Amino acid sequence: MKPQLRFALLLLVSLLSSSHVCSGQLFIQEIAKAYTVENGLPKGKITGIKLVNDVAVAWENTRSYQLSGATWQPRTSTEPVKSAPVLSLVEGAKVLSSVSWKNAQILGTEKGLYRRTGKKTERLFPSNNTYNWALRHVSVVLVDSRNRLWFAAEEGVGYLEGNDWHLFTGKEGLPYNQFTCGVAAPDGSVWFGTTRGAIKFENGVFKYRFSRRWLPGDYVNEIAVGKDGTAWFATDNGVGCITPTSLTLKQKADYFTQQVEQRHNRMGFITHSHLTKRFAIESSEHAISDNDGMYTAMYGAAQAFRYAATRDPEAKALADRCFKSCKWLVDITHESGFPARVIIPVDWPEPVNEQYGHAYNKRQQESDPMWKDIYPRFPLSKDGKYRWKCDTSSDELAGHFFFYGVYYDLVAETSEEKKAAQKVVAAITDHMIRHGYKLVDHDGKVTRWGNFSPEYFHSVYGYDQRGLNSMMMLSFLNVAKHVTGDGKYDLEADKLRKQHNYHIFSLHPKEYFPPENVVSWDHNLCLMSLYGLIKYETDPSLLLMYRQALENAWLHVSKQKNAFWDAIYQSSANGFTALADQKYFEGKNLFSENHLYAPSVVQDHYKASNNPAFIVENLQQIPLDLIGYAMDNTHRLDVVLDPMPRQDPTKGWRTDGYALPIDERGHVRQDRDGFALKMTEGDGQDEHEGTFFLLPYYMAVYHKLIQP
């Protein structure tokens, strides 16, 4: 079997098995910890690491240190310090590594791989149906717990099992090839150290552990693995430790709910937190963002799905709190129905209005002529106790309407709760209708990203937004009709369709090209809005069109392995499948001018076309550590750069066509571009909220995409 095919089959088996994972089934969560000079180690390079009686011992040249609790102490043992092995020459080439295997000595040298048996030395040439290698610079040879012989060289890595070589390059998933060391773990996995991080080969799949997310330094000098699978790394900037920990998805959700409540709840609003000391969670302080409303809404929706699935009273309390916070954003502003971005106390320590003065706005307009010169950007509330941020965008609206529909259906139980939801939904929707489908700020002008009007869509400035914003406006009206029961919102939607073709524009709800029009958070707005648009639509002809729109939107992100987007897509597509099974689209003479359209849409889009296993895979891979780290994947061997014209040279995907695993990307938020190879989310100065696990997880549980 060809190595590429073997790799693909192993990966497929792994993914298919994960699709049956339930909330209570254990999986392995890797947790990283970094030890540096702050933990008692010397500054700079750690040359070696080993385990002595299960205790980690690190070397720095002639000195050794032993881990005691969370601190490294200088060793007083009389045991000699670790010294570099004395390596000989083979055929004039320096020996870089050696290991005993099957009554022979295996030698990795600068000029090849050799086997020495007694006085006989022979060169080995690994080959299979794909590769035939005369190796150079064989940095690592080792024998794993299954007695397979491994090597690591610049050509790639491979192992000999029986008489068969299994060889791996970037095409087979190997991420990097500048090797420094290697070690076999007790469980059959193998670790390799490189000049840019560590690589683990486990169950036929490579995992790349690099950057400060995983290691204190990327140059790995030595690796040691304990009986429990914990891997220790001597790096150029301290000691790293990666511990495999058994968790369930439910336990992970509980952890993230606690994380949000402890560090990301500011006056009921959910947002990232700022770290006053880099990488130090204990230095967390509350921050504000442009989109407190959206992120609070997403957390509220997560708790709403949680409550519907579990009836946990804590979930209802948290969803209620988020609803009141989102409603406060609407109630505080200058005009009924205009939602603020942010609310902060009047004594907030940052000079928020000074940051957005006229001079700043004018500078912004040099590169963005549509930027608003509005002042103050943080007006004072009527009671004088708070400031609220204006220039509200479509992001906020998508979050509000997504949450209000879910909250109304799944959480609001009393008449008072229902009426509160109806009031705020009507207020926002009426504001937009009153102003010609625009968000109008305290200056009487439309906000930068709040224009949903027909005039805007027919202008040179708004043509690229019309697909997304037309669909969003129809979604808002559908949510408003469902929540309030008021038929006037149906009439408004009908007018937008008949007079301005909003439903036609909605068939193309996301821009795919040119690159500057493909904005990752627009994927978020698009799919969140499609959820309400499809869920609350009753016209079968429109449902057929919106199902097409859903497929068009999802295909563009289908390779990103985003649990939230996949959960929205699959749950919405499953609803369409249920209607098709009920013959909902038959016998109604739909699209009589083209009698093939309706049956072809039903046939082509009858079932969701995603891989359900990717939802579980993404949820399992989201790190527990949500600090933002800078990660540059452009050097990897297992990625293909996007070949589209004018494309960003730092965009790409794995050789299998899918985005890199989320724990190997420079972001943890689920509203980012999974194809971005070079990215940072604060570079150690911010911690992000666990909503980006909680919302897709509880949504998937509620919609039975994950077994309870």
Automatic annotation (TrEMBL):
<feature type="signal peptide">
    <location>
        <begin position="1"/>
        <end position="23"/>
    </location>
</feature>
<keyword id="KW-0732">Signal</keyword>
<protein>
    <recommendedName>
        <fullName>Two component regulator propeller</fullName>
    </recommendedName>
</protein>
<dbReference type="InterPro" id="IPR015943">
    <property type="entry name" value="WD40/YVTN_repeat-like_dom_sf"/>
</dbReference>
